[in-house]
Structure formats: structure tokens, C-alpha cells
């Protein structure tokens, strides 16, 4: 039987793709910091990551590190995770949110653009997860949550066509397979499948008209907020979520049945 290892009092959550002020990751980093987590923001936008960390540390009195990281580059991933391990308390949670959309119609898709989407959305998630898991396995405790998408189930939307949908479906298989191996080490591995949330990945701020149009198919009558996503992510990386693994959480206001 696997023993339950308590979370250390001083612990760190690593969040990739969490630099954008309007993004899901930033809202999640904020919420986790308000719950006492130290946070590391790893993002391709290094200046925004540094600003986010400074702001979070100032407002919540926790340690925060913002590091330019390209999740599609193994050296960059290794360097950033090594710095987090050296400078912050033990990593207990990893939230993989770095991602790009692919608004291209299938017959216009190029091999280069396809590879780029997979390199960031899927291979990036693989590389960061593998690097962070090494320490979690040693400490016998950890939570990993990655971003799939409702696009994996429905085949995309305006800003998320074939490459994006396929990469987000891959995240579900990845999550289940890694969860299979990690349970024995006290580590849970899950993913979330959000419906539309008004962030930069949607191609810029959504107009009220566009949001209202999208909301017609959503049972609760609105698009999602970053706070909706942060609340679920914070629950899934929390100490009480130890019996949840290999799961894909739909969070889309009911869009999945419309
Ligand atoms: P966002 O654009 O704010 O977040 C994506 C972040 O990834 C950005 O901060 C960006 O700088 C970063 N990034 C891009 N390439 C990177 C790279 N190579 N290395 C490191 N960081 C990189 O959008 P968001 O909505 O907060 O997206 C977060 C995650 O949620 C994404 O994986 C997205 O696919 C997923 N998601 C979003 C929605 C939605 O409607 N917003 C729906 C389903 C899933």
C-alpha cells in the first residue's frame, strides 16, 4: 500500500504559461499564493513572468520567481526547473498551462505550424512534467495538472482548429498514462478541459457581442472566467485531492452537452 505523505508546510507550485495578466495561469498563481503556496511562473514572456512574480510576492507575502522559459526547449526547461529547485521550497505542484492556439483551417495547415503547436502544447508538457517529477518521486508527494481543452472533444472552435484539438486530445492520453506510473509514488496526475475563457489565447479580448454569441450554447449562459479555472486547479493541486488521478475535468458551463 502507498503511504500518504503530508504536504510540507513550505511548498512551491510551478506554473507554466502563467505570465499573462489576463490568463488562467496568472489567476491560479494568485489564488495559490493567497493559500500560502510559493510560486514559480515559467513563461516564454520573461518580462511578464518577472512582473507577475514580483506582484504576487508583494501582495501575498510568499516567495515567487518568474523565469523566461521556453517549454519546447529542453535546456530552457532544465535550467528553469533547476533554479526553482535551488531557490524555492520543494515543488509539490506542477500546473502545465503553456500553450498556443492554431486558428488555421486544416487544408492550409503547414507541417512547421503543426510541429510548433505540438512542440509547445504536448512535448513541452512532457518535458516539464518529466523534469519536475524527478524531485516529486524522491519526496513521495506531488500533484500534476495539465491543460487539455473542450476542443479535444468537440474538434475545436474559432481559434482552436485541428492541430490545437489534436494536441489537447494528446494531453488526455498523456495524463492517464503518466498517472498509471505515478500513483505508487504518491503523485496524482490530472487534466482539465476548459470551455471558452476570455484570455489572449482566444486571439485578443473577446467583444461582448462575441461572448454573448458563445454563451448561447453554454448552459449557465456565460463564458468561463479565469477565476472559475483557478478554483478548480487550486482544488486539484490541493492536499485534499489525493484520491483524484488520471481524471479529465470538464469545466465548460455545460457546453459539452449542447
Ligand atoms: P494565455 O495565452 O494567457 O496563456 C498561455 C501562456 O503560454 C501565455 O502566457 C504564453 O506566453 C505562454 N507560452 C506560449 N508559448 C510558450 C512557450 N513556448 N513556453 C512557455 N510559455 C509559453 O491563455 P490561457 O487561456 O490562460 O491558456 C492557458 C492554457 O489553457 C492553455 O494551455 C490553453 O490551451 C488552455 N485552454 C484555454 C482555454 C480558453 O478558452 N482560454 C480553453 C481551453 C484550454
From TrEMBL:
Residues in Ketoreductase domain copies: 11-195
Pfam family, one: adh_short_C2
Superkingdom of origin: Bacteria
PROSITE patterns named in the record: ADH_SHORT
Protein family per UniProt: Belongs to the short-chain dehydrogenases/reductases (SDR) family.
Protein name: SDR family oxidoreductase
Taxonomy of the source species: Bacteria, Bacillati, Actinomycetota, Actinomycetes, Micrococcales
Amino acid at each position: 500500500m502507498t503511504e500518504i505523505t503530508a504536504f510540507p508546510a513550505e511548498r512551491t507550485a510551478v506554473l507554466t504559461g502563467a505570465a499573462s495578466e489576463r490568463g488562467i495561469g496568472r489567476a491560479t498563481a494568485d489564488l495559490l499564493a493567497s493559500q500560502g503556496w510559493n510560486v514559480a511562473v515559467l513563461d516564454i514572456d520573461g518580462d511578464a513572468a518577472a512582473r507577475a512574480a514580483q506582484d504576487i510576492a508583494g501582495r501575498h507575502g510568499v516567495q515567487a520567481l518568474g523565469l523566461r522559459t521556453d517549454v519546447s526547449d529542453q535546456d530552457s526547461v532544465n535550467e528553469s526547473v533547476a533554479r526553482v529547485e535551488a531557490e524555492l521550497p520543494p515543488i509539490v505542484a506542477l500546473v502545465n498551462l503553456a500553450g498556443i492556439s492554431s486558428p488555421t483551417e486544416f487544408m492550409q495547415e503547414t507541417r512547421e505550424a503543426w510541429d510548433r503547436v505540438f512542440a509547445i502544447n504536448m512535448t513541452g508538457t512532457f518535458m516539464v512534467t518529466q523534469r519536475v517529477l524527478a524531485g516529486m518521486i524522491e519526496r513521495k508527494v506531488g500533484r500534476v495538472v495539465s491543460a487539455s481543452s473542450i476542443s479535444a472533444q468537440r474538434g475545436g472552435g474559432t481559434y482552436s482548429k485541428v492541430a490545437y484539438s489534436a494536441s489537447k486530445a494528446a494531453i488526455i492520453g498523456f495524463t492517464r498514462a503518466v498517472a498509471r506510473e505515478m500513483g505508487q509514488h504518491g503523485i496524482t496526475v490530472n487534466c482539465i478541459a476548459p470551455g471558452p475563457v476570455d484570455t489572449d489565447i482566444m486571439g485578443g479580448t473577446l467583444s461582448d457581442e462575441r461572448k454573448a454569441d458563445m454563451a448561447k450554447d453554454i448552459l449557465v449562459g456565460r463564458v468561463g472566467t479565469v477565476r472559475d479555472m483557478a478554483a478548480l486547479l487550486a482544488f486539484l493541486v490541493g492536499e485534499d485531492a489525493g484520491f483524484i488521478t488520471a481524471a479529465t475535468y470538464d469545466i465548460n458551463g455545460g457546453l459539452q452537452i449542447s
